[in-house]
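Good morning C.,

I know you're traveling, so I'll keep this short. The sequence:
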Amino acid sequence: MSIQDRKIEDEGLAYGVSKLTTDKIQKTFKALIDNETGAKLKAFSETCMRCGMCAEACHFFVSHDNDPSYSPVGKVSQTMTKLLAHKGKVTPEDVYGMAQIAYTECNLCRRCVHYCPIGIDVAYIMTTIRRFCHNLGVTPQYIQDTAHSHSATMNQMWVKDDEWIDSLFWQEDEAREEFPNLRIPMDKEGADFYYSVIAPEPKFRTQLIYQAAAIMNQAGCDWTMPSMPGWDNSDMCMYSGDFEMMGRLKRQHFELAQKLKVSRIVMGECGHAFRSIYDNGNRWLGYKDYPVPVVHSIEFFAELFEQGRIKLTGKIQEPVTIHDPCNIVRGYGLMDKLRYVAHQLCDNIVEMYPNREHNFCCSAGGGVINCGPPFKKVRVEGNRAKADQLKATGAKICIAPCHNCHGGLEDVIHHYDLGIELKFLGDLIYELMEKPE
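The C-alpha cells, ready to paste straight into the viewer:
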C-alpha cells in the first residue's frame, strides 16, 4: 500500500502544501543538503543495500501485517531516496506524503538501527525529512501548535508564568496536610539540584509534582524548582523540525540552572526531554559538555536507594512488567538502573520479550502523539506489536518512566482491552515509602 492509499487529512499539512511550488521545494531541499547535512547522510544513502533486515524491527511494519511500505527502508525509499534521486524536484503532493510518513509513521525510536547490518540510522534520516518539511512550512497542525506554545511561553502547554507558580504553591499546600514540614523551595540559589518537569505536569498531572515533593522531603534533599521560564524541559520543536527554537529552549534551561547556581539538574520521568538534552539540543548549540550536569529521574531514584535515603513500608507483590522508553534506554542505556529501582519496589518482575534496548516503542514517542487526533488510529493500530508484548506478560501493572510512553500505552491498553495499570516510578515510590504518622 502506498502512502497515497493511506493519506490522512490534516489541516496543517494541507495548508502548508497549498503554498508550495516545485521550484520552492527544490530550492529548500538544496539548501538543506548543502548547509545542514554532510557525510552522515551521504554514507547512509549510498550504503543501504535494501536488504530489508530492518523491517522486523519496526512496530508499524509488524503491526500492519508486514506491509513493506511501513518498513524503515520502505519509508526511506518513499522520502529521502526519492528526494535525492530527483534532486528535490518533487510535487507538493509528494511532500504531503513525505511529511505524513516522517511525522506520524515513524517514532524515531531507533530500534531498526540494531537490526541494520551496517548501522544505518533511519531516525536521523526521518528527522532530516521533518526538518525539510518544517523549512517548507508543512507540519501537522497539532505539533505545530505545540511548537508555537514553546515559542510564545517557553513551555509546550501555554502555561502562563503565574499559573506555573500557582501550581507549585497549590501542590505544596496540598502536600503539607500529609507532610507538615514539606516545602517546594522556589528559586533557591546554590541548591544541590533543581527539579525539572514537563508542562503536562502542571497542566494535567499535578499529582506528580506532589509526589516528587514528598519524595524529596522524605529523602532530605537540598533542591529547588524555578519560577522563571525554562522550568519546562519538554521539546516538541526538536520533533517538529524547528531546531532554532529547540536551541532556545535548551539554552534557557541550562542558563536558568546557572543563574540559580545549582550543582545539577534532575529531570522528571520523561524520555524525549532527556533526549533533547543529551543528543539533539546540546549538539545544535555546539556544546562540548553540558554547562550544568543533568541526570534523569531513574538515575536519581537509584542514587537515593543506594544511599538508603528512601525507606519503604513494603513491596508490590503482584506481577509487574517494565516498559523500556526508547530515549532513555535504547538511546542512553538506563536499562539496568531502571531494573534496579523497579526491583527495590516490586518482588515479582515479569519481563516483556524482547526487552531493554530491543523493546518495542510505545508508538507515542518522536512527537507522533503530539500530531493529534487525525493520526491516533494509525498510531494505535500501528502498535499491535506492543499490545502483544504487554498481554504475554500476564502482568496487571506496567512501569513506564516516561510521559509520552504513558500517553501511548494508555491508548494501546484501552484499544486492545488489556486491563493493565500504568505506573511511574514516582507513583510507586510515593505509594510504598514511609510517611509521617
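Safe travels,
E.
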